[in-house]
C-alpha cells in the first residue's frame, strides 16, 4: 500500500514543500491531489476524502474500506486527528496544535500571492512566453453613443474577476473591450451631430452629450423607421421609403465611412476616441485597465474574405435569396437554424465580423484560450468559452436615471455616503468620505452582482447593498477596516508581525479562546483551494461565499479573542495580532481578486 502524503491532501498542502512536520505514512493509498476535497463547513472536517475516488482495489465496499482506513489511522499524527468514517467519506480534521505553525508562516511568506501561486501545472515550457498560457478575456464591450445597461455592468464585473483570477493564477491575460463602434447607427449619430451637436457640450460631458444627440436623432428617425417596418410587414418594397429623409442621410454617411472617406471617418474617430477616453477613466474607478479597445470597426475586410473563403471551401456557405447563409440544421448543429452571414445588400453582418475577429485575435495574440463574458452565443469553436449570466432587475427604476457606467457608480457612491452620514461620530473620523463612499459604494454593487451564481437573475436592492449587516460588500469592507485597525491600535506594524511569526512560530492561545483561533486558521487554510475551484467554474460567488465565511468567523472570534486589552502578556498579544493580520491578508487577497479595493478605515 502506498502512502498518502499531506501534499496530496489539498491545495494548502500542495504548497507546503518544506513541511516542518515529519510526515508519517498513512494507510491510505495515494491519489492525485483534488482540490475539491476541502469542505463547505468546518464541522464536516477540513478535508474530506470520497473513498470511491481512490479506486482502491479489493472486495470490500467503499464504506467498509473507509471504516478500515479510519481504524488503521496512526495515532498521534502531528497534522491529522484520527478520523471517524462517515459512510463512504473520510473526514479529516487538522490537529489544533500544529495548524498555526504551518498556516501563519505560509501566509506571511506569500502575503499577496497566498492562494494565487499554486497553479504549477500551468507552467508548461512548451507554451512559450516563459511558459505561461495566454488567455484573452473579452468583456464589458459597450456600444458608442448608446446606454451602458445592466448587461454591460455584469459583463464588466464578472469579466474583471475572470481576468484577475487568471492573472493571479499565472496566466498571461489580455483584456479586450470589443466596442460596438461600427454600423449604420454610427452613420445616424453623425447625422444627429450635424443637427444637434455642440462642441461645448461635447467638451463638458462627452458621453452624455453623444447619448443625447443620438436620442434626439433617433426620435426624429422613428416615424420613418415605423413606416418602413409597416411596409415590410405588409410585404411591400421598402426601398423607396429608405431612399429619402433621414434614412437616406444615414445610409449615405455610413457608405462614406465604409468607403474610407477621410472626412466622414474623422468625425467618427473623434467620437470613438472621446468615448474611449471616458470609458478608461470610469473603468479605472473599478480597478480595470483594458489592454486593447478593439471593436467591430477594427475587423479587416481581408479577414472577412478569409472567413468566407473558408466557409465556401468547407461547403457550408450557401446563397439564399440574395444573402449568404449557413444552415446549421444541415450540419448537425441542432439548436441553431439558418444564420445570415452576409446580408442582401452585400453588407457584412455582426456575426461575420465577430468570427473574423476571432481569427485576427488568434493571429495577433496566439491565445491558448479565449473567454467571452456575454449572454451566450454557442456558435464558435473549441478554444472559445462563453461565460453567460442572468439579468439585473430594476436597475434604472431603483437607481434613478442611469445611462452610463459612471452614473451607476455615482449613484451607489451617493447612497453609501448617505448611509455613512447617519453615524455622525464615525463619519467625522473618516478622512476622505467622498472617496471612501465611492469605493464602498462600488464594492456594494459588485458584491451584490457576484453573490449568487452567474446564471441567476437578481434585483437591485440599495438598502440591502449599503447595509453593514448581512452578506454585503459594505460588511466585507467593514471587516477589513476593523482588522486593519486592530494592528494600528495595538501599535504594531505588519513587519513586526511577520518577523515575530518567523521567530516565534509556536505561540498561540491555549485557553478557551483556542477554538476561535483554530477555526479562523482552518478557514484561512482553505483559500488556495477556493481559488482553484473558482478557476474551474469561473464563479465569483465561489470566492465571495468563502470570504463571508471568513468574515463571519472573524466577527465571532473578535469579541472573544482580543488583541488590545488582553492581559495575557505580550506574546499572546502578538500571536493574536499575527492571526488577525493573516486573516486580513487573506481577506485582502480575495477582495482584490474580485476587483474590490479594501479600505483601510
Ligand atoms: N457590443 C455588444 C453589446 O453591447 C457586446 C459585444 C459582445 N462581443 C462579441 N464579440 N460579440 O451587446
UniProtKB/TrEMBL annotation:
It comes from Drechmeria coniospora. This is arginine--tRNA ligase. GO terms for biological process: arginyl-tRNA aminoacylation; mitochondrial translation. GO terms for molecular function: arginine-tRNA ligase activity; ATP binding. Gene3D superfamilies: Arginyl tRNA synthetase N-terminal domain, HUPs, Isoleucyl-tRNA Synthetase, Domain 1. Residues 476-601 form the DALR anticodon binding domain. Keywords: Aminoacyl-tRNA synthetase, ATP-binding, Ligase, Nucleotide-binding, Protein biosynthesis. InterPro entries: aa-tRNA-synth_I_CS (IPR001412), Arg-tRNA-ligase (IPR001278), Arg-tRNA-synth_N_sf (IPR036695), ArgRS_core (IPR035684), DALR_anticod-bd (IPR008909), Rossmann-like_a/b/a_fold (IPR014729), tRNAsynth_Ia_anticodon-bd (IPR009080). One of its GO terms (cellular component) is mitochondrion.
